[in-house]
Structure formats: structure tokens, C-alpha cells
Amino acid sequence: MNKNPIHIIGGGLAGSEAAWQAAEAGVPVVLHEMRPVRGTDAHKTDGLAELVCSNSFRSDDAETNAVGLLHAEMRLAGSLIMSAGDANQVPAGGALAVDRDGFSEAVTRKIEAHPLITIRREEVPGLPRADWDQAIVATGPLTAAGLAQSIADVTGADALAFFDAIAPIVHFDTIDMDICWFQSRYDKVGPGGTGKDYINCPMDKEQYLAFVQALVDGQKTEFKQWEGTPYFDGCLPIEIMAERGVETLRHGPMKPMGLTNAHNPGVKAYAVVQLRQDNALGTLYNMVGFQTKLKHAEQVRVFRTIPGLETAEFARLGGLHRNTYINSPTLLDASLQLKSRPGLRFAGQITGCEGYVESAAIGLLAGRFAAAERLGHAPLVPPLTTAFGALLNHITGGHIVSDDEPGKRSFQPMNVNFGLFPPVEAPKAEGKRLRGKDKTVAKRRAVTSRALADCREWLGLPSRAEAAE
Ligand SMILES: Cc1cc2nc3c(=O)[nH]c(=O)nc-3n(C[C@H](O)[C@H](O)[C@H](O)COP(=O)(O)OP(=O)(O)OC[C@H]3O[C@@H](n4cnc5c(N)ncnc54)[C@H](O)[C@@H]3O)c2cc1C
């Protein structure tokens, strides 16, 4: 076996988990963390895996919640982040919330004590050196400037975002297609398109005027002091466009031109909200041009006034924050490796996942993939039916790259959610079709039990039935 260590840059959620997984597989690791030598705008301590904002890992319900399922899969895979989280839990209803200091101390202690891990407190100023033949960049949304610039240089200058406005994403099966219709503007058949690539939601004049007013009046999130950077790609939040004049949106993302309401062809819509397919499975649609800094509850309230979205469920809500992430679907292969430099992997939020748990999960995968290669095996990618596989697939290929909004990047960071999984048939109860909430819950249960069985198989663990014998 090649005895060279795997070099991991960044001792956050992803880097700590990657280091643990590789070392537990028997491979030496050097973990480079720049704090306390150099800080970030959000971190306050020199602890590994510091939680920079909330102390919640969100829902711990592995049966009907996608992030709860990810927790369960990570526990099966021997996750350090999950064991430290479980050991430092504080009461939070159905959520897993942790004592942030106890959690970070537990991760730091475990990493420091591991005989195969060396921690170097230093900033890595550029891309990993050429003699680091296996390396993982896990430097997060606040990657230090020197390394961020080197990454931009190798991946293409437009491939790294610094300030993001993101638009909401809706679960397709919650859109009312008796009101909305499929059509591309002027029925244009773009590359790979059919002329019916968008879902259109029609508004009359009264609905439009009320909607613009609701955007102007809606509560916005406040900017933090580190959010002084200009808008990415001139991608203005929708409420700022609304403030510029009542007609601005009707001449921008809500223009009705080239669209005919399939349910009511004789009546021209005054304005139209368009949604575009977001993943190859066709289970998620993003609201085109609807990047926003409205508070999350306000987004749900205001966007549900859009005809056809009255009962919409959101896989992700819009937001505005500083972020550093690469255009992973173009740049990375299925095992998170930079296509242009084999042996160099990315992990954590910099790959385009969102959230503590997702970042740690991608770190877990990157650590396993790098260790497998070091041990002479091909990395074994988790099946798409697992939360690991669904999230990985979003990052490395499941997202559809759109080229109809020049200058804008369509790949956006995302939390794990059920829209990323291949659909299942809704189970029946006593031969009868389920409806409404019962149907949703039954489908989620079917997805999560399939996921956990497939995850066990991927990890080489006995099935639950075998384990119980
Ligand atoms: C302000 C803010 C608030 C957030 N709030 C939440 C929240 O409430 N809930 C949630 O789930 N997610 C939140 N996130 C997202 C959260 O940061 C990420 O989900 C998670 O921390 C990312 O994990 P990571 O390991 O990719 O990055 P991080 O945890 O940020 O770890 C990256 C590490 O790399 C180090 N580093 C950077 N550059 C270098 C370098 N050149 N050399 C050596 N070390 C380097 C950093 O010091 C850091 O320790 C927030 C993000 C930000 C920026």
C-alpha cells in the first residue's frame, strides 16, 4: 500500500468527518485547519467542526424526513459527526440539536486522539501541492481568499460564486396542473428541450398587483455585516425589482409574452410565473428569477398566493448569503474528484450541498472514496435510492444545467430532500388508494425503508432482519 497520507484541507464539518472515515479505514491523514492562525467572518473558536450559526441538525425522524434519514445512514456508516452530535444532544422536540461547544470539543478530542491523524494548524494558501497525490478540499462557504482564487483559476473564473441569491424550489407533485400548464416561451425548442419545458402559472391584473404589493410589504432578512458584497451576476432579489416599479416584474421574470394558457386559450394572462425543471428525475422545479431575501415564512405565505401554487411544498426556500461553491456537476466526477486533476476531491458545502449535516455527509463520502483509492480499490458510489446517493447525485450529475439564462449559474446549493430520490409508487391501504397527507406519509415511509435497506447493502452490513436473528 502507498503509505502517503491523504491531505484534507479544512477541519470543519466535512473535513473532520472525511479525516475520521479515512483514518478508520486504516489510511493516514494530515488535516490542515487554518484556525486559530487565520479566522473567518463567522467562526469564533479554534475547535474543529464549529457550528457557525444554529445548533440544530434538524429533524431526527428517519421515517418521514429526508435529513432524519441522512442522520440514520450516517450513523450506519460510523459517522464521527453523528456520534458527537448524539453524545451532546440538547432537548429540541423532534430535532437533533446539540450543545455546540461540547459537540466541537468531542470532535476535536476524537480527531486529536486518532493515531492515524495529524492536525496541522496552518492556512493552505493555494491548491494542494502536486506531491499530495490524494487530497480533499473541504474549506466551506468561507474558504480563505488565496485558496479560493487558486480554485477559481483551475476551474474557470466564473465557476466560483461569492455572493448568492437563490430562488425557491418546489416539489412537482404539489403544483396544481389544472391551473398551470407546460409550455416554453414561443414554444421554443432549446437544446434537449421539447417546447414544453416550463410550468406556467397565470395571473390576472388584480392578482399581479396584489402580489407585487405583497413582495414590497413582506418582511426581509437583515444583512449581516459580512454581507457587503455586490449581488452575484446582477441577480437582483425579486422584491428589489418589485420596489423599482409596479411594472418591472411584468417586463422581467414575470413577462407573459409568448405564452398561451392551455386551460383558457382565449384569455391572455397579465403576468406569468415560470418554473423550470431542476433535476433529471423531474420531481423538482425552480421558480425562475425568484431569488429573494424575504423571510422564509413570508416566502411560503406570499408564493402560495400564486395561482397553481396554493398548496405548494418547497424543497428549498430562497435566500441571500455569501457562499463559495464550485460548479460541481460540470467539474467533478461521480466520486467527487476534480475531472481535470485525479486524486483531488472536494467535500462539504463547497461542492454545492447546504447545511451542517449534508456537508458532513459529503465529507464522509469523500473520505471513504479517497481511502478506497489509497487501498487500491475503486470507490464504491452509494445507490441513488439512499440519502447519500441522492445528495451525491444532485452534486455530481442529477441537476439539469440550464443554458437559457446567460451569465447565471443554475446549479445552486441544496439541502437533502425527498425530491432528490427516485419516486416510489404510493402504497395502498387495504387495497384502496391513499390520498392527501396519508399518501405523502406512506410514500415517504416507502422511500426511507428502501433507502435504509440499500444503504446497509452498500455498506456491507447485514439487513435488519439478518441483524435481528
Ligand atoms: C454565516 C453562516 C451561517 C450558517 N448557518 C447555518 C445553519 O444555521 N445551519 C446549517 O445547517 N448550516 C449553516 N451554514 C452553512 C454551514 O456553514 C455549512 O453547512 C457547514 O459549516 C459547512 O461545512 P464545511 O465543512 O463545508 O465548511 P466549514 O464548517 O465552514 O469548515 C471549513 C473549514 O475550513 C477552514 N479553512 C478555510 N480555508 C482554509 C484554508 N485555505 N486552509 C486551511 N483551512 C481553511 C475553515 O477555518 C473551516 O474550519 C451557515 C453558513 C454560514 C457562512
Question: Can you put this structure into words, describing what you see?
Answer:
- The chain is an alpha/beta fold and 469 residues long.
- It folds into two domains: 6-159 and 326-396, FAD/NAD(P)-binding domain; 166-321, Elongation Factor Tu (Ef-tu), domain 3.
- 31% of the residues lie in helices and 13% in strands.
- It contains 13 helices and 16 strands.
- The model is unreliable at 225-233 (pLDDT under 50).
- The structure holds flavin-adenine dinucleotide.
- Residues 9-15, 32-35, 40, 42-43, 52-54, 123-124, 138-144, 147, 348-350, 355-356, 359 line the site of flavin-adenine dinucleotide.
List the helices and strands and how they pair.
Blueprint: E1 6-9, H1 13-24, E2 29-33, E3 56-59, H2 66-76, H3 80-87, E4 89-90, E5 95-98, H4 100-113, E6 117-121, E7 135-137, H5 145-155, E8 163-166, E9 169-171, E10 181-182, E11 198-203, H6 205-217, H7 238-243, E12 271-277, E13 284-287, H8 296-303, E14 314-316, E15 319-322, H9 328-331, E16 344-346, H10 356-374, H11 387-398, H12 436-459, H13 464-468
The structure holds flavin-adenine dinucleotide.
Flavin-adenine dinucleotide binds at residues 9-15, 32-35, 40, 42-43, 52-54, 123-124, 138-144, 147, 348-350, 355-356, 359.
Describe the structure concisely.
This protein has 469 residues and is of the alpha/beta class. The protein is built from 13 helices and 16 strands.
